[in-house]
Write a structure and sequence with these properties.
By secondary structure, this protein is an alpha+beta fold. The chain binds pterin cytosine dinucleotide.
Length: about 775
């Protein structure tokens, strides 16, 4: 064992999970193939809206290797509707969502039949021999047209509105009446396709005893998946073990319950053999829930000096054809965060969830909060332009003053801690803001072909979805606690079982750091077990930047319990009073008495030997902890993006990018920086490159990576990152979320920078992604008016 640095928390220790992943020893669902596995392929609707008149599977059933062909009707008795866990209003319309369509399809890609075969290629080949007679209808593809009377997606509902939800504080009409200036903007959040490296995959194996199943899935949420699938497929929850082995990214796309998981359970039950499905990239693009998908109408009212008086917002949210796990709740996350980091008197927002004949939308990194912060931060720049103020100054003027134990936002949220101006000043200094503005002036005066743009975004976000009382009040059908158990083994090694389910975030490292400090043990002696409902019967998995603040705190508190018991036993072993013991470097000693010490590993040995325990003490050294935090955490910061825009071609490049973020106490700076890098790259992707494009018939035209551009290293600059540290009072670690900040802050910073670069042409708006063509057209439109 290697002794590592102490304290471990706060140091950039290398990721414990990397050697296994980098040497090809990862355990991926797609590599799991129990003997006798049957492979399935799914036939998908080529129409966005159509009636299924008839299905003939007879030819497919005769194809080589085919074990069975199943339609929605064949399987109807195997399941109930896939539920939506966030019915945001009492009168929300939630359509039935069967894993395989029966008589109507509502988006291109919806499952209509399944082939099971002895190998994946045979299953795929047989799909071509299924004969379906469709009666196609005109689809509804655009939220504004959908509400204005587009073809109805779900006949029984009579309109395409799923729900209307609103929130208001203060007298917003008065604020607009009293305002010196107002801005009124319309922003479109295009749909995005989550693109984890590993496509979705599922393997369901019937237990040899004949009772129950083990389901391996490339999922972010093994625990939630188990509960929901148990209900949908009528399997007693205790008879369903869900394992998420190594998972190659999710970004919110794997925070869901998918038809293929239900199909695999149904067929494993029918055929009594292991059943496996692995998505093709294009299938995932079509069927993994899309992110974003909003049209936002944003109005600000302000005084002449830039002081905000009020904000009015309307969101039309594209739900797609069905409500998945959290679909209707995502716009609410936007609504609550829409006022951003600013303090002002009145706020009114209305969200409408709207059905379209497209892939359902749901969580995508920064879910809801990226959209909200984008809206407010674009509008703040519009206000700065209207007033002729510097964008940094208009932000500074309106920041909520510093607070370290609670402050209420215009949306009525109680935030934990924040100090926005410090982060702004630090990033402006880091970026050399004056230097950048000077260079910008020089290029403008010289009429250079390549203009410079500087874009800012100040953000906060509610990370760490919790506490349970609050999620219940929001009608979200999932609590917000997390659990951990910390077992010190008789050997002195430590096993941590966590309810979080990392899929790239590095919990094996960061939880081990918390334990190394908490118990004074070497980092290498800590093993972190996750992603298996058999090891951790309860857990709430990983999403919403909750794991450090909630799951990490559960680990920390479990260590405290272990240490407390160890202290009692150590006192007994040293024949000393507990209050006379000191604990340092992994050993207990009696204060002021030299040579009297016992290591925690020796204490663990004695705890299991149990030959001489204090009166009433149970053997062993293992503790479990549930932690339900009192609030969300509110990370914050300011990003500065520098762009160069070639005004002849419209091409945008990002030569420099600066960020100062505050996620409270940092457990591992290298991991946090990595999270920032990935998040910023994703935000740049939305701002400049990524777009889920549909044709007029509702076919997804961007289903392959040849058509959907995810930025890679060549498109990205070196990021210059720094931090401020404002601990969260909501948890013992003082940690706030770090996993989504990059994607929340970067999108508006980039778009604001592009518009800033185009000021010499009078361009005030550009839709995302700001492709060369869009930028070029905006310049030419402005030139010709
Ligand atoms: N961390 C830290 N100090 C803090 C906060 C966090 O060292 N103050 C560390 C944590 O211990 C953890 C990592 O940073 O190792 C991220 O922690 P946290 O912010 O709690 O976020 P989660 O672990 O809950 O991850 C969820 C978040 C989300 S919502 C998306 S989407 C996302 C993301 O993380 N998807 C990812 N990061 C991703 N990274 C990868 N590689 N792949 C994805 O799919």
């Amino acid at each position: 064992m290697t002794e590592t640095l102490r304290p471990s928390v706060g140091t950039a220790v290398p990721r414990k999970e990397d050697p296994q992943l980098l040497t090809g020893k990862g355990r991926w669902t797609g590599n799991i193939a129990p003997p006798g596995t049957v492979h399935i392929a799914v036939l998908r609707s080529p129409f966005a809206s159509a009636r299924i008149e008839s299905i003939d599977v007879s030819e497919a059933a005769e194809c080589p290797g085919v074990v069975g062909v199943f339609t929605g009707e064949d399987l109807a008795g195997e399941w109930s509707s896939i539920p939506c866990a966030w019915p945001v209003t009492e009168d929300i319309r939630i359509p039935d969502h069967l894993p395989v369509a029966v008589d109507q399809v509502r988006f291109a890609g919806e499952a209509v039949a399944v082939v099971a075969a002895t190998d994946a290629a045979s299953a795929q080949d047989a799909l071509q021999h299924i004969d379906i007679d469709y009666e196609p209808a005109d689809p509804t593809l655009d939220v504004e047209e959908s509400l204005a009377g587009g073809p109805i997606v779900h006949d029984g509902f009579g309109s395409n509105e799923s729900y209307t939800w609103s929130l208001g504080t203060g007298d917003v009409d008065r604020a607009f009446a009293d305002a010196d200036v107002t801005v009124s903007e319309r922003y479109v959040q295009q749909r995005l396709q989550p693109t984890p490296l590993e496509d979705r995959a599922v393997v369901v194996t019937p237990e040899p005893t004949g009772r129950g199943f083990t389901l391996h899935s490339s999922t972010q949420i093994p625990h939630i998946l188990r509960s929901v699938l148990a209900g949908v497929c009528s399997v007693p929850e205790q008879d369903l073990r869900v394992v998420a082995p190594d998972v190659g990214g999710g970004f919110g796309g794997k925070l869901n319950v998918y038809p293929e998981e239900c199909i695999a359970i149904a067929l494993a039950r029918r055929l009594s053999v292991p059943v496996k499905w692995v998505a093709a990239r294009s299938e995932d693009s079509q069927t993994m829930t899309h992110g974003r998908g909003q049209v936002q109408y944003v109005e600000l009212a302000a005084r002449e000096d830039g002081t905000l008086l009020g904000m009015r917002v309307r969101i039309l949210a594209d739900m797609g054809a069905y409500l998945q796990l959290l679909t209707p709740g995502i716009p609410l996350l936007s609504a609550f965060i829409f006022p951003g980091v600013y303090s002002f008197g009145s706020f009114a927002i209305e969200c409408k969830g709207v059905f379209t004949n497209k892939t359902p939308t749901d969580s995508y990194r920064g879910a809801g909060r990226t959209e909200g912060i984008y809206g407010v931060e674009r509008a703040m720049d519009a206000l700065a332009r209207t007033l002729g103020m510097d964008p940094a100054e208009v932000r500074r003027r309106n920041y909520h003053p510093p607070f370290d134990d609670g402050a209420t936002t215009p949306a009525g949220l109680e935030m934990d801690s924040g100090n926005y101006e410090v982060a702004l000043d630090k990033v402006l200094e880091l970026a050399g803001y004056e230097r950048l503005r000077t260079e910008q002036r020089r290029r403008r005066e010289a009429g250079d072909r390549v203009q410079l743009g500087i874009g800012l975004c100040s953000y906060t976000e509610n990370g760490g979805l919790s506490p349970s009382k609050m999620t219940a009040a929001l009608r979200l059908g999932a609590p917000g606690w997390e659990m951990a158990s910390v077992r010190m083994l008789s050997t002195g090694a430590v096993q941590v079982v966590t309810g979080t389910s990392p899929h790239g975030q590095g919990h094996e490292t960061t939880w081990a750091q918390i334990v190394a400090d908490g118990l004074g043990v070497p980092l290498d002696s800590v093993e972190v077990v996750h992603g298996d409902t058999q090891s951790a019967p309860y857990g709430l998995d990983t999403y919403g930047s909750r794991s450090a603040a909630v799951g990490g705190t559960a680990v920390y508190l479990a260590c405290e319990k272990v240490l407390s018991k160890a202290r009692t036993l150590a006192a007994h072993m040293l024949e000393a009073a507990e209050q006379d013991l000191e604990f340092s470097g992994g050993a207990f000693s009696v204060a002021g008495v030299s040579g009297s010490s016992v290591t925690i590993q020796e204490v663990a040995g004695a705890a299991y030997l149990a030959a001489d325990l204090p009166e009433g003490m149970e053997p062993g050294l293992s503790e479990e902890q549930f932690f339900d935090p009192p609030n969300f955490t509110y990370p914050f910061g300011t990003h500065v993006c520098v762009v160069e825009v070639d005004t002849d071609t419209g091409k945008v490049t990002i030569p420099e990018y600066f960020a100062v973020d505050d996620c409270g106490t940092v457990i591992n700076p290298a991991i946090v920086d990595g999270q920032m890098h990935g998040g910023i790259a994703q935000g740049i992707g939305q701002a400049l490159y990524e777009d889920a494009v549909y044709d007029d018939d509702g076919n997804l035209m961007s289903a392959s990576l040849a058509d959907y551009l995810v930025p890679g290293a060549p498109e990205l600059p070196d990021f210059t990152l720094d931090h401020t540290v404002t601990p969260s009072p909501t948890n013992a670690l003082g940690a706030k979320g770090a996993g989504e900040s990059g994607s929340i802050a970067s999108t508006p910073a980039v778009v604001n920078a592009v518009i800033d670069a185009l000021q010499p042409f009078g361009v005030d708006h550009i839709d995302m992604p700001a492709t060369p063509r869009r930028v070029w057209e905006a310049i030419n439109r402005a030139r010709s008016t």
